[in-house]
Amino acid sequence: MARLVARAGMLFLMVALLAGCGQKSSTSTNDSVDSTAADVSADLSVQPTPDGDAETPDVDEADLEVSIDGDPSIVDVLDPCAANPCVAPHQSRCEPALDGFVCRCDLGFHLDPLTQECIEDDGPNPCDPNPCTEPQMSVCEPAGLGYTCKCDDGFEISQEFQSCVPIDRCSPNPCTAPNRSQCSVVGNSAVCDCDPGYKLENESCVAKNPCEPNPCTVGERTTCLAIDGENYECRCSVGYVEQGEGCTLVPTCDQRYASIVGKTGNALRQALFSYTGSKVSVMDYEAARAQIFWTLDYVSGQVQGVYSGKWVAVTKGVLPNYSKELNAEHTWPQSMGAEGDAKSDLHHLFPSIPNINSSRGNTPFGPVVIADKCYDPTGIVLCPFVTGDYYSIRGKDAVGVIVWEPADQHKGDVARAMFYFSVRYELPIDVRQEAAFRLWHVTDPVSPKELQRNDDIETLQHNRNPFIDCPHLVP
């Protein structure tokens, strides 16, 4: 419900001061309201009548409040008279005013200055028959000894005071809600619609997902990848990989990692090190950031921060502001060894909200026992007040060490990224973190999204995370 409040006290005072100054004239009326600057733009002609009293607007000094129900997309503030608030006897004509609305007497009635009530005119009605015949200016109003011609509904007086022109309800644009700036006029009101690529959902404009429902239903190409809010690409189904113009079955773990099968301990680590580094071609850091935001984690014009679950609008070809919009999270901190090629390795880079990324810093991972702060789609919050079920926690573990516990939806991804990084760059994982990673690897198993990301990274930097392809390789 839009609520409109009109303060009329000052206008009433002006009317009271001017009402006593009325004189008969061939060019003016006793209507003190219509002779004020506020109504100059609406009065084009005034004609005398044989007799009549001055009309003054009946406005209570108290606040006049109007509630308007209806389509929430209609900008009611542009038409305070949409649900006529004027209900006093013989006073049902509502006019928009600078700060709200004014209730005027019905035709054939005028305002009694003593009782402030609308009483019937004694003389003839100057508006019967209607003398207002100019285009879009057919509204006739008695005005003391004459009448006033005003613009029809939906029109307003031109700046030159020469004619009535259509009211542009969309200038200036009243549609300022996020992703909802498309303004159009319906009837006499402005209607706000979602921007291209967005749809209305629960009174908010959210990005369209062209993959819902899934349009990819032919053969082995049933994986839909949203390019933006309107376009999509059909990729090979889970379990298949691109081969030429078609899709072929993904090699089994034993087939793909034949050189690793049967190895354990240090021999396994060495084999994994060789496999992950044999063909790798790591790009520079800026290019890696671009691939995260424009390819790997891009969904219908948005990218989700992995620790908070917050979605951020992203335009392909434009890198998000790393300090205000999105940054690249180094799952293995730079200060702990993620330097050189390791800094740009896509297998451990994920999108993150900048201030949350800074809060994590190089804090080790682990299960939180005593929570300090939580991080959800709304930002940094006190843990009892998180919104939804996607949030990360910072606090103390069982032995009092400050640790970072990622959202349940991202725990397995963190574990497998850390195992990959450890074997790829021959860096050890401390005992407490390794125990947490083993648990998270089981509780948050590999998802189709993670498999697809592994495929995409192979295309970009020519190596894979074996712990995604073969979960049993985690000892």
Q: How many separate helices?
A: 10
Low-confidence stretches: 1-75
How does the overall form come out from the CA principal axes?
elongated
Tell me the Rg in angstroms. 35 Å
* Strand residue content: 15-25%
What does this structure look like?
The structure is a single chain. The protein folds into three domains: 2-166, no CATH class; 168-207, no CATH class; 264-473, no CATH class. The longest helix has 15 residues, at 411-425. Helix content is 20%, strand content 24%. The chain is built from ten helices and 28 strands. The strands form twelve sheets. A four-stranded antiparallel β-sheet has the order 26-25-27-28, with no helix packed on it. A three-stranded antiparallel β-sheet has the order 2-9-8, with no helix packed on it. The protein starts with a strand and ends in a 6-residue tail after the last helix. α4 packs across α7 and α7 crosses α8. The protein has 475 residues and is α+β, with helices and mostly antiparallel strands.
Task: Spell out the blueprint of helices and strands.
Layout lengths: L1 E5 L2 H11 L17 H4 L5 E3 L15 E5 L24 E5 L2 E5 L4 E3 L6 E3 L18 E5 L2 E5 L4 E3 L6 E3 L15 E5 L2 E5 L4 E4 L2 E4 L15 E4 L5 E4 L4 E4 L2 E4 L3 H4 L8 H13 L7 H12 L1 E2 L2 E3 L6 E3 L13 E4 L18 E4 L1 H7 L9 E7 L2 E3 L10 E5 L5 E4 L5 H15 L5 H13 L4 H14 L4 H4 L6
State the gist of this model.
The protein is an alpha+beta fold and 475 residues long. The protein has helices spanning 9-19, 37-40, 253-256, 265-277, 285-296, 354-360, 411-425, 431-443, 448-461, 466-469, and strands at residues 2-6, 46-48, 64-68, 93-97, 100-104, 109-111, 118-120, 139-143, 146-150, 155-157, 164-166, 182-186, 189-193, 198-201, 204-207, 223-226, 232-235, 240-243, 246-249, 298-299, 302-304, 311-313, 327-330, 349-352, 370-376, 379-381, 392-396, 402-405.
